Structure formats: C-alpha cells, structure tokens
Amino acid sequence: xxFFTIIPQPxxxxxxxxxxxxxxxxxxxxxxxxxxxxxDSVDSFIRQEMMKQNIQxxxxxxxxxxxxxxxxxxxxxxxxxxxxxxxxxxxxxxxxSKQFFATGILLLAEAGKLNLSDPVxxxxxxxxxxxxxxxxxxxxxxxxxxIRECPGFDPQKLKxxxxxxxxxxPAPLLFKPSEKWAYCNVGYFMLxxxxxxxxxxPWSEYIGNTLFAPVQMSTTRTTTTxxxxxxxxxxxxxVGSTLKNAPEYLAIRPSGAFISSVLDLAKWEIALQKSGxxxxxxxxxxxxxxxxTGSKMPxxxxxxxGYGWNIATQNNHTLVSHGGSLPGFSAQYxxxxxxxxxxxxxxxxxxxxxxxxxxxxxxxxxxx
Length: 368
Hints:
The chain has helices at 15-53, 98-110, 136-141, 161-166, 185-199, 203-212, 262-273, 280-286, 355-365, and strands at residues 57-64, 67-78, 83-84, 91-92, 221-222, 236-239, 242-245, 258-260, 291-296, 302-305, 310-314, 317-326, 329-336, 341-347. By secondary structure, it is an alpha+beta fold. The protein has a domain at 104-199: Methane Monooxygenase Hydroxylase, Chain G, domain 1. It has a 9-stranded antiparallel beta sheet, sandwiched between helices. Strands 4-8-5 form a 3-stranded antiparallel beta sheet. Helix 1 packs antiparallel against helix 9 (355-365), helix 2 (98-110) packs parallel to helix 5 and helix 2 (98-110) crosses helix 6 (203-212). The two termini are 36 Å apart. Residues 1-38 have low confidence and may be disordered.
C-alpha cells in the first residue's frame, strides 16, 4: 500500500504551485517521522539504562528556549501498587535542593539584608574562633573547610538546625577557607538557619513563599513522612539482588530538603531562563566558578563549583548541573545555559549512574 494516496482533483492551481504544495507536505511528513524517531530513540535508550541499572522508575523533563519539549515517566513510581511513573510523579530531590537555598540567600542580598562577604560570626556569634575567616561565600561554594556532616544529625530524630550546627563546633577545620573544596552539608544547614534568622520566618516558608509560589510550583515542598502527597513515588534500594523499600528519614535536612516533580522543576527552569527569579547579576553568581572541585569530566576537563551548582563543559558546551542522592532516590538537574536547554531527571532508585544518560541526552537535545 502506498504511503499516501493522491486522489485526482480538478486542477485549480498551476503545476509549479502543485509541486510546491506536494513538496511542503512531503517535508512535513519527513520532519514528523524524524522527530518521532528521535523521541523513540531517547525512550529506548532510557529504558535500556533502567534495565541495566535496575532502576524501578524515572521521570524526565526537557526544557528548551523556555518551553517544555518533553516530559515523560518510565517504569514504576510504586512497585507494590504497580503505579506507573509519570511527569507528575513526586520524588525526593536530595541535594538538587541546594540551588534553592543559594537563590534564597542571593534574594536576601539583593534586598540589602546581608552580604555574601558577611562572616558567619554575624549570625552565629558563639561559633568557634577558628571559624572567623568563614563567610557566606564560603558556605555557598563548599570552600569553608568545615566538616561534611553535622555530628549530631540522626535521620530518625527531629532536631533544630541550630542544635545540629552547634554539634559541628568542636570539629577542627579541614583546611583554611578558600584553600580547597570539600562538599559540606553543614554549610547548607548554616545557610538555611541564616535565611530563617534574617527573613524572620522559617526557611521552608521563606523559600516556599518567595521562590515556589511565584513560579506556581504546586508540588514542591519539604519532605514529609506524615502528610499525604499526591502521586508520591516509593523509594527503593537493592540489598544484593533483592529489592527493598528504602528507609525513610524522619529528619528534614536543609542540604536535601525538598520533594518535587520534573514538571515543577521545569517551571523553575523556565523562570531561570526568562530571568524571572533573580537579577541577571545575581543569577550569574550561581553559575560563576568559584573553586575547582578536584573532579573531572570524562574528557578530563575540570569541574568547578559556584553557588549550589557544578560548572563544567561537555562537548564544548557549558554544563551547569547538580545531582542528589538519598536512600531510595537519585536526582540530576542538567543545564546547558548557552543553548537554553535543561534536562531534569528524577528516579526512585539510589545509586543511579547518570554519566551515560547525560552524555546521550545532551547530544540529542542540544542545538546543532
């Protein structure tokens, strides 16, 4: 059977015009087929990676030039109920949350309520003398020299952030501020506490009111084990070859505080692309390299850190990204700012290896 059939009609246009119309129809069909093949190729690749890595569920959104061009779920959001993952599925986003604390701090700086050069003793006057050289800038960029985790943190106990921060007071600095880079969740506990003290409201309310509400991020909020969350994904871990429900944290960690969906994070990305969140000057600080992390991309180019974001290059494209991991969940938020492209990936499996996915998806969705 032919691909399409031309039914004879009275000739109402000249032959050259008819030829042009035929050509336009043909090009439209070819373009649609090509686009479908690209989508099918992406879907097939993602499903293959999920099988290879034993990933139960994954959701992805792609934003280009301020528009969502793809949003889809794969696999299962809940294994026990056989509930499929969708673009609306809600996951823990772990350390992808850090960008929101960095943005909140920059908003307070824009309002003149603090300076990035402020020493931490302005907000924590009882902090150790050894912390004298640490500023907000160092907390944002993981260059403070503080230890990685609060010693007093217990995932099964709720404790005030201020108490957990004080539990880090006795620990010696790992290095002098700005001397090196070392990932530091203590620093983001401190940034959250600074937001609370300066804004006069709990950090969860401040970030919800000033960042999430204006962008209409209706599913993004702090993690909770007690409240009902529509379309919440179950988190899964593997113990040997056995799939288990991942343990739940009762405590809320500012360093990995939020749950969200790829569609909500796509709204955030659109706001970033359209400069609807921060001034251009402040926004550029998020993605300005402060210090090299010591890690490298597959092509050996160095990875640096800004404020709540990693900065690198991939195939000669600037790459801004941040990942996150909690028991039962992995997340990856990838931005190619020079191309106005972002790829957001959320999963209900821990330990996901994102490198191959990032490489493949970047090649598919970047402008040629």
